[in-house]
Specification:
alpha/beta, D-Maltodextrin-Binding Protein, domain 2, Alpha-Beta Plaits, 6-stranded mixed β-sheet, 5-stranded mixed β-sheet, binds phosphoribosyl ATP, binds zinc ion
Length: about 300
């Protein structure tokens, strides 16, 4: 009997990426019940195994072929990729997942007079992302000293370890708490799937099938099913207001002057859109979540 081909995916054990990753798999019909926090989880109904690790280890586990795929922040991936630019590195971006969005930014003390990246020339910058930072400094012809830290970067100006910092920012609250302000975004990040560039065609087929399932779940997450009634004379005006909808369904109603319009909207339907629809003559407006979708 030939051995079944299975793929191994590296996933963060716990942290900002893990819950969202498991949730996305669940929405794609793949339940990973890792209640006992096992290191290796075998998905019974699919040829897929999951290895739970720290996020920093994921790029190299994939590059070295221990794992075929991995889910990691593009900030961490870029940092490792740049650090290996003179060595063999066999991992590449495969698919963007759109969650855990954040940015790697230069941040300065709140009274610092920042106009452009030139304002920081010659200063000492603390960061946990030395490669992305050095790449940015080189591209902008800036001569700065880089102090590499493993965490708590935001306190380094207080400790006189650095003049300014380069760190991950999401809401900006951590910077404010530490008397600093965001000055310049140098890298936009989000969770991504990466893959080993040398995996077999057979494994790539399994990976592609998984990614297309996850993609459907991501689209379904963003999309809404909108149902409303509209005066016949306002069909065009009202359908033009439906965000990201292609060719809505238009059905007759008992009242001959009205129609029912049903549409899948691939963009968020905000309250102000609903108010505009109502002002244009729409009534009985319902916005429903979509559980599954295949385009
Ligand atoms: O234990 P392990 O090593 O696996 O995890 P970790 O602690 O290294 O990583 P984790 O779970 O904190 O983050 C994983 C990934 O989430 C990061 O690599 C980013 O891609 C992404 N991400 C999204 C963030 C944030 N948002 C974020 N806000 N990573 C870190 N932060 C931290 C940031 O370092 C700073 O201290 O949050 C603070 C800033 O947040 P705001 O909201 O105050 O601006
Ligand atoms: Zn980490």
């Amino acid at each position: 009997m030939t051995k079944e081909t299975r793929i191994l995916i590296a996933m963060q054990k716990s942290g900002r990426l893990s819950e969202k990753s498991l949730e996305l798999f669940k929405q794609s019909g793949i339940v990973i019940n890792n209640g006992k926090r096992q290191l290796l989880y075998r998905i019974p109904e699919l040829p897929i195994d999951i290895l739970f690790v720290r996020d920093d280890d994921i790029p190299m586990l994939v590059s070295e072929g221990t794992c075929d795929l991995g889910i990691v922040g593009s900030n961490v991936f870029k940092e490792v990729e740049l650090s290996k630019k003179d060595e063999e590195f066999n991992a590449a971006h495969f698919f963007s997942l759109g969650f855990a969005k954040c940015r790697l930014s230069l941040a300065v003390p709140e009274h610092f007079d920042f106009h452009s990246p030139q304002s920081i020339d010659g200063l000492r910058i603390a960061t946990t992302y030395p490669c992305i930072l050095k790449d940015f400094l080189k591209k902008n012809k800036l001569k700065c000293e880089v102090a590499v830290m493993s965490g708590s970067v935001e306190i380094s100006p207080h400790l006189k370890i650095s003049d300014i910092i380069c760190d991950i920012v999401s809401t900006g609250a951590t910077l404010v708490e530490n008397g600093m302000k965001e000055a310049y975004n140098i890298f936009d990040s989000e969770a991504i799937f990466i893959r080993n560039t040398k995996i077999s065609d057979e494994k790539l087929k399994i990976a592609s099938k998984l990614v297309s399932r996850l993609d459907c779940a991501l689209i379904a997450n963003k999309s809404k099913y909108v149902m409303l009634n509209a005066p016949k004379s306002k069909i065009k005006e009202i359908t033009n207001l439906l965000p990201g909808s292609e060719s809505p369904t238009i059905m007759p109603l008992a009242d001959e002057n009205k129609v029912a319009i049903h549409a899948v909207c691939s963009e968020p339907v905000f309250w102000d859109t609903m108010e505009k629809l109502k002002a244009a003559g729409a009534s009985s407006i319902l916005v429903l979540p979509i559980e599954k979708m295949m385009l």
